[in-house]
Structure formats: C-alpha cells, structure tokens
Design goal:
This protein has eleven helices and 13 strands. By secondary structure, the chain is an alpha/beta fold. The protein has a single domain, classed as UDP-N-acetylmuramoyl-L-alanine:D-glutamate ligase (3-Layer(aba) Sandwich), CATH 3.40.1190.20. Strands 5-4-1-8-9-10-11-12-13 form a nine-stranded mixed sheet, sandwiched between helices. A four-stranded mixed sheet has the order 3-2-6-7. It is globular.
C-alpha cells in the first residue's frame, strides 16, 4: 500500500488511452435530431481523466495516438489548453480517425452515439510504450477502452509491465464499453487480466459483475481483488454510493445528490477527483467523497472535460451542498 500511496502522492500521472472530440446540442435539453447548433469539447475517457487531474492542480501526460487531420489537431490543442503534457501523443495517417461522441445534455430519453470505427487511438503500439520514461511519473492510469483492440491491447499490457518494472503503481478504470469490443467473452477475459495486474481498480457494479460472470457476483469479485492483487478497489453503485476495499477496510460512502443535466462524464471526473485528493494527502474516505463531488459537478453541466471542476469550483460546490447521502452498511 505504501508504494501505491507514495506514487500517487507525486501528483504526476502517466495516463494511457484515447482523446476524442465531443459534440453536444446547444442549448441543453435539445434532441440531436432537432438541433441547429452543436458545441464541441474534448472527450475520451483517458483525456478527460488527464484534463480533470490537471484542472485540480496535478500533472498529467497522455499517451495515445490521434488522427493526422483537423480533428486530431483539435484534440491535441484542447489537451494543451488544459495543461496536459502531449509529448507522448502521436499522429497517425491513413484512414484511422479520432473517436467522436455525439451526446445530449438531458437525462430523459438521453441519446449518445459513439463513432469508433478505425479508431486512431487503437494504433498505440509496443514501440510507443517503450518510448516513455516511466520513472518520470508517479503512477500509470488507464481505462478499459485501451484494451478493446490491437495493437493497443498488447501495447497497454506492455506499458503495464514497463511501469511495474519502474516501480509505478497501476490505476485501472474498468470502463467497459461494449461497442468497442469484438465480443463480450473477449472483453471479460481481457478486462479481468488487466484488473489482476492493477493496484487500484475503479468500476461500477455492472462492470465488476461483467468481469465476474454475473452482476450478482460483482461485489464478491471486487472484494476478492482487494484481498489478492489490488491494494484499493472502489465498487460504485450509482445512487447507492460506493464501497471501497483497502486491506481490512470496507468503507461505505454516499453521493452528492444533484439535478443531473446529463449522465456522461461522471466516471472520468470521479477518477480525476479521487486521484487528485489522494495526491493531496486526504484520507481514502475523503478522497472517494471528493471524487463523488467531482462527478456530481460534471453531470450538472454540458460537456465532459470542459465541465470538470477547478479547485475553486469544487470548494464552492462543497460549501453550498448539504453533504453526501447517508448509506446503510
């Protein structure tokens, strides 16, 4: 556990995974098919996490591939505007394209369409992984989508090996997206393998259930991981809060209830808030609650990376909110 905490405390994260462009109808509440105007923002789970960490005062470098076109350049420019280090962001030509998400800023009948055909970020290679100086960072962070296709899958596992050799703890957000995978069977096998190699694992009840072969088995899967290979496992349950396993600890935490504008971006913001809070020396329980607060902030605003809070935003939210929900253990 001390190695994990010491790595996160450096507040300098190597984040592996995709950056994409988000489109969302404006004003909020409008259906995609009825929209005349769309706004754009940075998206992609790993890019969101990196941007969220930096906005909260940390450092983050993204390792990914982007398309060698205007959309890829947009993503790089957005990453740089947030202060994310892009030295390991590679442009790839040919027919590979950046991922694109079109989603609505509304909860009722919410629609989200993801374009991931021939995705540029799946062109992350073992050679790319070997070009990173892992000792320059405190921890490696990634999300499950990086494992969905080759060569990115093998490259990400190679990055795990190199990070481990350099003494970095590995932080893994399960982030299962069925549309990215060739089959559920492949996803279950690969995500379980990644989880077994990780020091910190974050996922929701459905994701752990998927890894375990049934949602009723998810909680036991999370607990078992914490008792075998992982040091910290966070089992998120939506409105019911989260259960965090760490050694002999089993922490139950609630959520910050808000009127949500949309359901997207919450998981990425949770991870950013959790890591930033741990890096600042907060207790595990308080770090999980800060992550939950960051998630609540993001679902209340349009966009993903643009909606993630700065320290003053988080401070104001916590001061004005009555507090997290009470959970029964």
């Amino acid at each position: 556990m001390q190695r994990v905490l010491a790595g996160i405390a450096q507040n300098n994260f190597l984040v592996v995974g995709r950056a994409g462009m988000d489109f969302f109808p404006d004003p909020p509440g409008v259906k995609t098919e009825e929209a005349d105007t769309f706004k754009a923002g940075l998206g992609g789970s790993s890019a969101n996490i990196a941007a969220g960490v930096v906005k909260l005062g940390g450092q983050a470098a993204l390792v990914t591939s982007v398309s060698d076109d205007s959309v890829g350049r947009y993503c790089v420019k957005q990453l740089q505007s947030y202060g994310v280090d892009c030295v390991h962001v590679k442009s790839v030509g040919g027919e590979f394209r950046n991922s694109l998400a079109v989603y609505e800023s509304r909860v009722e009948e919410h629609q989200s369409v993801i374009y991931r055909n021939g995705a540029a970020d799946f062109q992350f290679t073992k050679q790319d992984a070997e070009e990173v100086a892992y000792g320059d960072y405190g921890a490696l962070v990634t999300a499950g989508t990086v494992f969905a296709a080759e060569p990115s899958r093998s490259a990400a596992f190679h990055a795990f090996e190199l990070a481990r050799s350099a003494g970095l703890p590995i932080v893994f957000d399960v982030d299962y997206r069925p549309y990215s995978w060739p089959s559920p069977q492949v996803a279950e096998e690969v995500l379980s393998r990644a989880g077994a190699l990780s020091d910190v694992i974050v996922g929701n009840d459905e994701e752990f259930g998927f890894m375990a072969g049934g949602i009723d088995k998810g909680l036991a899967k999370a607990r078992a991981l914490s008792q075998s290979t992982a040091k910290i496992v966070i089992y998120k349950m939506g409105e019911k809060g989260a259960i965090t396993f760490a050694g002999d600890q089993e922490l139950h935490t609630g959520i910050y209830k808000v009127t949500a504008l949309k359901p997207t971006g919450a998981g990425d913001s949770f991870m950013a808030g959790f890591l930033a809070s741990m890096a600042q020396g907060l207790s595990l329980q308080h770090a999980v609650l800060r992550g939950s607060a960051c998630a609540a902030i993001v679902v209340g605003k349009p966009g993903c990376a643009p909606a993630m809070p700065y320290p003053d935003d988080l401070k104001t939210f916590l001061a004005q909110h009555p507090g997290p929900s009470v959970v029964k253990e």
